[in-house]
Amino acid sequence: MKRALLIITVLFIAVISTACINNFAVQELNNKAQVYLNNGDYEAAIDRLQASLDLDSTIYETNYNLGVAYIKANKYKEAIGVLKKAAEINPERADSYYSLAVAQESYGQKLLNMSTKASSEDNSIENNDDYDTEKESADEDEALSVEQRKAKAVELYNDAVASYKKYLEKAPDAKDKDDINNEINFLEEEISKLGLGE
Asked: Does residue 114 contact residue 88 with C-beta atoms inside 8 Å?
């Protein structure tokens, strides 16, 4: 009996020690990532936060900060995934919905900018016999047609509107409430324009 109690005690101490070491490592990685974020080194921050998630993917702050780092690095698709996870972990935190909306809106705008650029390049291709039609990038967004990009942008804008509304629902007294409502109105107008094929 004493031996069984001793084994259980040792295992319990080992589990607690491992948890403490992981928590310390996660905190260290998150602190270092914050320094990188503050200095504008978003890729280094992303690396640290990703390593932190590898140790413990259930921490809201790590997921949220990684989402913000992805936004600052213009990696909106990645930001959306991580910010959705942050909102799942702590659905009462309004800031995750706001940042998610920013990522969704920015990604939609990126797709529309790609569509505009592709349309102007199509016009210049007709007048340029030396144009190389082979794509240099395997990026899936670039492989989409202009109409597919517009459709995806509309979907992202609708998601952004829903996320902004969720933000206002979670933070009804937000100081930026009027700005957010103006942004929602702007996005709804853009959705309407894109829906008409403009």
From this structure: no
Spatial separation of the C-alpha atoms in residues 57 and 127, rounded to whole Å: 52
Domains, in order of start, for the chain: 12-75 (1.25.40.10), 92-123+139-198 (1.20.58)
Q: How many CA atoms lie within 13 A of 106 on its CB side?
A: 19
- Token pair in block for residue 85: 């996870």
Burial code (b: 16+ CB inside 10 Å, e: under 16) for 81-116 equals ebbbbbbebeeebbbbbbbbbbbbbbbbbbbbebbe
On whether the CB atoms of residues 154 and 194 are closer than 8 A, the answer is yes
Q: What is the pLDDT of residues 102-157, one digit of tens each?
A: 999 999 999 999 877 765 554 443 443 333 323 333 378 888 889 999 999 999 99
Pairwise CA distance, residues 60 & 73, whole Å? 20
Does 82 or 36 have the greater pLDDT score? 82
Q: How many CB atoms lie within 10 A of CB 153?
A: 24
Q: Tell me, what amino acid is at 103? A: A
User: Which residue in 26, 72, 71 sits closest to 49, CA to CA?
Assistant: 26
Distance between CA atoms of 57 and 49, rounded to whole angstroms?
10
